[in-house]
Write a structure and sequence with these properties.
The complex is a heterodimer of chains A (351) and B (373). By secondary structure, chain A is an alpha/beta fold. Chain A contains 15 helices and 13 strands. Chain B has a single domain, classed as Queuine tRNA-ribosyltransferase-like (TIM Barrel, Alpha-Beta Barrel), CATH 3.20.20.105. The chains are: A alpha/beta (351), B alpha/beta (373).
Chain lengths: 351, 373
C-alpha cells in the first residue's frame, strides 16, 4: 500500500505502556516494527478533550488524570521530554488549545502563549534526529492567525501545523482559516492541518495549499463497518442492502479487499469476526492514499478543475450499484462552503 | 479422491502421505493438521496477512467450519461461485467442509431424528440431511463430512446411544440415496460416545462403504480442557477402527494440546486441526514446545496478559522463526493485550499456528527415525 508516515498518540502511549517503557523498548519504531516515518502529537489535545477538570496557566496544562484521578501538570518541557522518549521523526509543540468556538481576549492570549510555549519547547528539544513543528493558533480570527503565522514561521525549522480546527466549527469558517494560514505562511514549510479529515476536506485543504493531514476517521469508521468510497462518500456495509451485493466495495479500487471480497461477505462478518475490521480498514487507508495521490497528480498535470468536477460529482453522487446507470445519476447538493472555496480558488464546477 | 498412503508404521504412530485432496495436489505428509477456518478465514488473519506472514511447512488443507457461515448459505448459493471464493480463500486451495466448529459450543439435547443442531452467534440451526447436501454442493469444497449424532455424553444410557448410532446411520444413508449427487470427497464421521460397543457398531454401520475417502472420529468429549482417561481412549479407538480397512486416513477434529496429540498419533490418528493454537491465541496465550519434544511430551503455555512481561523487551520465544517472534517483543504483546488491540490476536495466532505446525514436523521426523513394525 506504500503508506509512508504514521501518527502515534502521545497521550495514550504516555498512559499505556508509558513513555519510559517505549524508550526502554528502543523507541516507537522498534517497538511497533515500523521503519518508516512517525509523527507524535503533543499530548495536550487529549488532555483537553478527555479531562473534565482542565486548567491552563503559564506553566502548562493542568489536568485530572482520567485513570488515577490525580491532578497532573504538563508543561511544554514535559511534552517534549515525553516525545523525545517516544522518538518519532516529527514532534509537535505543546500549544494552548481552546475550543474553536471560544471568543474574546482568551483567543489572543492562547495564541501568544502558544508562541511562548514554542520557545520553551525549542529549548527543551535536545535530540537532533527529531524535527519539531510549531502549531498555529488564533481561533477563527484571521488577523490573529496571520500574526501567529508570521511569528511562528520565523521559528519553524522543518514544517508547521495549523491547529485548533475540526472542533465543530462552521465549515465556512474552517476553510477560510486554512486559506488565510496557507496564504500567510512561507512556501518552504510543509503545512500540516491537524485532525483533518473527511475526503472532501482533504481535497479542498490541499488545493488551498495544505500538505499534510491526519485523522482517525478512516480506521475508526472501518471498525464499525463503514467503507469510504469515491462514488457516494460512505458505504455502511452493515446495512441490509448489502446482504446479497456481490460487487466489491469499489470495483475501481486496487486494494486487497476490493480485489478479493464482495460487499456481501464483508456484511456477513461485520461485528462477528475481527477480519471484518481489518478488511474495511485496509480499503479505507488505501482510499485515502489513492485520493491524495490523485490530488497530487491533478496539481502536477494542471488539471485541478477537471479533477474537482469529477471528484465532487462522484462524492456527492450515489453509491455505485448494479441496478443504476451511472451516467444518468443525480448529484446531491454540493455544500455551499465547498462551492465558495472552489470559487475562491478560481475553479468552475459544471453542475 | 483423497490419495493417502501409509509409508511407515511405528510404535509411536504412523507416517503417511496425502498426495491429492480431491482435485488438489497437496503432497502433504502426516501426522499433520488441517488449518482451522472460521468465517472462511484463519481467525484474525486476512488472507493477505496469511499469505505474506504465515509460513507453513506444507501445502495446507483448510478446515472450513460451517457454523460461522450457515446463516449465509442461501447467499453463497446465490453467489454461485462457492464458499471458498465468497470468503476470499486463495484459488485452488484444498478445503474440507465440516458441519461443526471445534471451538464452538455444542450443548446436548438438541438433536432429533431428522437433524443435528449447530450453533451460531444468533442461536441454534437445525441441520437436516437435505440442507446439508445442498450446502455441500453449493459451497463446492473438495471434501465434506457426514452428519453424526454427537449427543452421547458419558452418562448416556444404552437407549440414547443406540438411538445416536441409528440416527448417524440414517443421516449417512439419506445423504447418498437421493438422485441429487453429493459433490466432493466423502469423509465419514464415526460416533458412539464412551461406549466401546457403540463405537464398533457405528463404525460398521457407516464406515464400510467403498466411496469412503477418510474417517473422522467424533471425539469432542476428549478435547482440551476435558478429563481424559488414556486407557479408555485406546480402547475406544481400537473398537472404532478394528472393523474398518486399516489404510484409510484417520482424522480427529478439535483442540488438543501437544501431549494429547502425541498420544492420539501413537494410537493411529493421522490428521488433526489447528483449533488448539487459535483457542490459545483467543485467550492471550502463546505456547512453546520443550526442547526435547517429542521425546518428552512437554510444552509451556505463556500468558501474555500477565503484567510481569510489561518491561520485558526480549523476543517472545528465542529460536522461533515466526513473524511475531522475529519482529516483536514480550512487552509489546503484553501492551497490545492490555490495551485490547486487535493486533494482539493476529500476532498470537501467527506464532501459535507456526509452533503447532513445527510440532507436527518434529513428530514426523521422530517417526522417520523410529523402527518400523
Amino acid at each position: 500500500m506504500d503508506c509512508r508516515i504514521l501518527l502515534c498518540n502521545t497521550y495514550h502511549l504516555g498512559h499505556r505502556p508509558g513513555h519510559q517503557r517505549v524508550k526502554a523498548a528502543g523507541g516507537l519504531h522498534k517497538m511497533m516494527n515500523w521503519n518508516r516515518s512517525i509523527l507524535t502529537d503533543s499530548g495536550g489535545f487529549q488532555m483537553v478533550s478527555l479531562s473534565k477538570l482542565m486548567t491552563v496557566d503559564e506553566n502548562g496544562v493542568n489536568f485530572e488524570s482520567p485513570h488515577t484521578g490525580e491532578m497532573m501538570a504538563l508543561p511544554p518541557e514535559k511534552s517534549i521530554e515525553i516525545q523525545q522518549a517516544l522518538g518519532a521523526d516529527i514532534m509537535m509543540q505543546l500549544d494552548h488549545v481552546i475550543h474553536v468556538l471560544t471568543t474574546g481576549d482568551i483567543v489572543k492570549e492562547a495564541m501568544h502563549r502558544s508562541i511562548r510555549w514554542l520557545d520553551r519547547c525549542q529549548v527543551a528539544h535536545t535530540r537532533d534526529d527529531q524535527a519539531m513543528f510549531p502549531i498555529l493558533q488564533g481561533g477563527l480570527n484571521l488577523e490573529l492567525r496571520k500574526e501567529c503565522a508570521e511569528e511562528m514561521a520565523k521559528r519553524a525549522k522543518v514544517g508547521i501545523a495549523i491547529g485548533g480546527l475540526s472542533g465543530g466549527e462552521e465549515k465556512d469558517h474552517f476553510w477560510k482559516v486554512v486559506a488565510a494560514c496557507c496564504a500567510a505562511l512561507p512556501s518552504h514549510l510543509p503545512r500540516y492541518v491537524m485532525g483533518v479529515g473527511f475526503p472532501v476536506d482533504l481535497v479542498i485543504c490541499s488545493l488551498l495549499g495544505a500538505d499534510m493531514f491526519d485523522c482517525v476517521y478512516p480506521t475508526r469508521t472501518a471498525r464499525f463497518g463503514t467503507a469510504m468510497v469515491r462514488r457516494g462518500g460512505l458505504m455502511q456495509l452493515n446495512q441490509k442492502r448489502y446482504k446479497e451485493d456481490f460487487l466489491p466495495i469499489d470495483d475501481k479500487c486496487k486494494c486487497n479487499t476490493c480485489q478479493n471480497y464482495t460487499r456481501a461477505y464483508i456484511h456477513s462478518v461485520i461485528g462477528k469476526e475481527t477480519v471484518g475490521c481489518h478488511l474495511v480498514s485496509v480499503h479505507n487507508i488505501k482510499h485515502q492514499l489513492d485520493l491524495m495521490r490523485d490530488v497530487r497528480r491533478a496539481i502536477q498535470s494542471n488539471s485541478v478543475e477537471k479533477f474537482l468536477n469529477q471528484f465532487l460529482s462522484d462524492y456527492y453522487g450515489p453509491i455505485q450499484d448494479e441496478t443504476v446507470e451511472q451516467s444518468s445519476q443525480i448529484v446531491r447538493d454540493v455544500p455551499r462552503w465547498v462551492r465558495d472555496a472552489v470559487d475562491h480558488m478560481g475553479y468552475k464546477l459544471d453542475f | 479422491m483423497v490419495k493417502f498412503t501409509i509409508e511407515k508404521k511405528t510404535l509411536l504412530g504412523r507416517l503417511g502421505k496425502i498426495d491429492t485432496w480431491g482435485s488438489v495436489e497437496v503432497n502433504h505428509q502426516t501426522p499433520s493438521c488441517m488449518t482451522y477456518l472460521r468465517a472462511g478465514h484463519i481467525p484474525h488473519l486476512t488472507w493477505e496477512v496469511a499469505a505474506t506472514q504465515l509460513r507453513l511447512e506444507q501445502t495446507p488443507i483448510y478446515q472450513m467450519t460451517l457454523p460461522s457461515l450457515v446463516t449465509q448459505a442461501k447467499i453463497i448459493e446465490k453467489f454461485g461461485k462457492g464458499a471458498p471464493k465468497f470468503c476470499g480463500i486463495p484459488a485452488s486451495s484444498a478445503i474440507h467442509l465440516t458441519p461443526f466448529d471445534p471451538l464452538g459450543k455444542l450443548p446436548g439435547g438438541y438433536n432429533d431424528s431428522k437433524s443435528v443442531a449447530i450453533w451460531t452467534p444468533n442461536g441454534k440451526v437445525s441441520l437436516d440431511v437435505k440442507t446439508w447436501r445442498s450446502i455441500i454442493n453449493s459451497f463446492g469444497c473438495e471434501s465434506f463430512e457426514t452428519l453424526v449424532d454427537y449427543d452421547t455424553p458419558r452418562d448416556a444410557g444404552q437407549k440414547k446411544l443406540l438411538k445416536a448410532v441409528e440416527r448417524t446411520r440414517t443421516f449417512h444413508e439419506q445423504l447418498f440415496q437421493q438422485d441429487e449427487k453429493v459433490k466432493g470427497e466423502r469423509i465419514v464421521t464415526l460416533g458412539g460416545g464412551f461406549s466401546k460397543y457403540h463405537r464398533r457398531k457405528c463404525a460398521m454401520e457407516v464406515g464400510l462403504a467403498e466411496e469412503t475417502s477418510a474417517y473422522s472420529v467424533e471425539f469432542r468429549e476428549f478435547s482440551e480442557g476435558k478429563e481424559v482417561d488414556e486407557k479408555e481412549i485406546v480402547e475406544l479407538l481400537e473398537e472404532t477402527f478394528s472393523p474398518l480397512p486399516p489404510t484409510k486416513l484417520r482424522y480427529i477434529a478439535g483442540p488438543f494440546n501437544p501431549k494429547t496429540i502425541l498420544f492420539l498419533i501413537k494410537n493411529g490418528i493421522d490428521l488433526f486441526d489447528s483449533s488448539f493454537p487459535v483457542k490459545l491465541a483467543d485467550e492471550g496465550h502463546a505456547f512453546c514446545l520443550a526442547d526435547d519434544y517429542p521425546t518428552s511430551s512437554n510444552f509451556e503455555i505463556v500468558d501474555f496478559n500477565n503484567q510481569k512481561f510489561a518491561d520485558d523487551f526480549t523476543t517472545p520465544f528465542a529460536g522461533c522463526e515466526c513473524y511475531t517472534c522475529k519482529k516483536y517483543t514480550k512487552g509489546y504483546l503484553q501492551h497490545l493485550l492490555n490495551t485490547h488491540e486487535l493486533l494482539a490476536s493476529i500476532l498470537l495466532v501467527i506464532h501459535n499456528i507456526t509452533e503447532y505446525d513445527r510440532m507436527f514436523k518434529l513428530i514426523r521426523k521422530s517417526l522417520e527415525n523410529s523402527e518400523g513394525i
